[in-house]
Amino acid sequence: MPLKILMVCLGNICRSPLAEGILASKLPADKFNVDSAGTGSWHIDHQPDERSIAIAKKNKVDISNQKGRQFTTSDFDAFDYIYVMDNSNYWDVIQLVENQEQTEKVKLILNELFPNENMDVPDPYFGMPNGFDSVYKMLDKACDIIAEKLIEKHC
Ligand code: 4NP
Fold first, then answer.
1. Which end of the chain is more exposed for a tag (fewer CB within 10 A), N or C?
2. Of 3.30.70.100, 3.40.50.2300, 3.40.50.300, 1.10.1020.10, which CATH number belongs to 3-154?
3. Is the distance from the beta carbon of residue 12 to the nearest atom of ligand 1 less than 6 Å?
4. Cβ(125) – ligand 1 distance below 6 Å
């Protein structure tokens, strides 16, 4: 059975769809399954934000077929690793855990790149036009490290 990794942000239209597409592009599809979800419910069934689709496409990653969904408590057992984009997502998700095993699955994605610094992937939704480019770059670097670790551990 493939190992399952979930990327989580607030809306599931800007950051976590990018994280899903980027990580999936770095892993063999037969061994790993990458998905994403939002803690909020505004964008259920929506396509990712057009600016996320565009920056991914520029980097040869296609996220246009993704559909927004909301994080649910069943995700704790369905997924092996859960990466959240910022501290607010972290607390929203951690509030829902029922045991220590579930707690340990939840990690801030940028701690892979900057261990123990608890940094946020900034939400580009209302921000600067180049926000999507900088978010893409930081997620790409974090996903390089995640992919390397996962392949080493599970392949
Ligand atoms: P995301 O960005 O969490 O990176 O998908 C957001 C997108 C939409 C909203 C919030 C954050 N919203 O409030 O609609």
1. N
2. 3.40.50.2300
3. yes
4. yes
